[in-house]
Design goal:
The chain is mainly α. The chain contains 6 helices and 3 strands, in the order H-H-E-H-H-E-E-H-H. The model has no long low-confidence stretch (mean pLDDT 93).
Length: 148
C-alpha cells in the first residue's frame, strides 16, 4: 500500500479486532467479564475514591453514557459496582468500585497480563514491545484514563 498512514490505521484496526477476538472469550469464561467491562473496572480502580461519573467513564471507554448505564446495570446487580450520589449536586451520581469488584479486577488484570504476554511471545523482543507501547502512547496522548 502506498499510503503508510492508511496502512497503519488498517493494521491497528486488524490488531484491535484480533485482540478482542482472542481476549474476550477467555475473560468471559474465567472471570465472567467482557473486555470492555474489565476496562471499565480498571478505570474505576485507578480513579480517586474508586469512582467516576458515567460521563467520565464514557469518555475513557469511548462509548456513550447510555452504553455505560447498560454496562453497569448487570455489574451493579452482581455487586461489582455501586452507585453513589454527589453530596453537593443531586443530579450527579458516581459509579463506584465495590470490594467484590476490586477483587475481581485484580484477578482479571492478572489474566489480562498473562494473555498480553502470550500475544507477543516468540514474536517480539522486550525492546520492540516497549517501543510499540511508546509509539501507541503518542497516538493516545492527552486522552483521559491511561491504564498503562
Amino acid at each position: 500500500m502506498s499510503n503508510p498512514s492508511l496502512a497503519s490505521v488498517l493494521a491497528l484496526l486488524r490488531a484491535h479486532a484480533r485482540i478482542e477476538e482472542q481476549f474476550g472469550p477467555l475473560l468471559g469464561s474465567v472471570h465472567g467479564l467482557a473486555l470492555k467491562e474489565l476496562l471499565l473496572l480498571m478505570h474505576l480502580e485507578r480513579a480517586p475514591k474508586a469512582r467516576l461519573s458515567r460521563i467520565d467513564l464514557a469518555k475513557r471507554l469511548h462509548v456513550s453514557a447510555s452504553t455505560v448505564t447498560r454496562m453497569t446495570a448487570p455489574m451493579e446487580k452482581l455487586g461489582m459496582v455501586g452507585r453513589q450520589a454527589d453530596a453537593r449536586d443531586a443530579r450527579l451520581a458516581y459509579v463506584v468500585l465495590t470490594p467484590a469488584g476490586q477483587k475481581l479486577v485484580a484477578n482479571a488484570r492478572a489474566t489480562l497480563e498473562r494473555m498480553a504476554g502470550d500475544l507477543f511471545k516468540d514474536r517480539w523482543s522486550r525492546q520492540e514491545i516497549a517501543t510499540l507501547a511508546e509509539l501507541l502512547g503518542r497516538l493516545t496522548a492527552g486522552l483521559p484514563g491511561d491504564l498503562a
